[in-house]
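My current task is to audit a protein record that another person submitted. What it holds is a sequence and that sequence's fold in token form. Thanks in advance; the entry in question is below.
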Amino acid sequence: MIETNFKIEELDFKKNDNGLIPAIIQDSTTLKVLMLGYMNREALEKSLAEGKV
């Protein structure tokens, strides 16, 4: 499980017609930004639970 400073319930997945929100992916050691992608709720929940994107 990845530690976050937000609650998934606070994110507005319905803001866009496609149900996606921006997701910035960072290296956990260096904090270097690796990519900007988009995730739906299911993908975000799975990433947080498994600790990988």
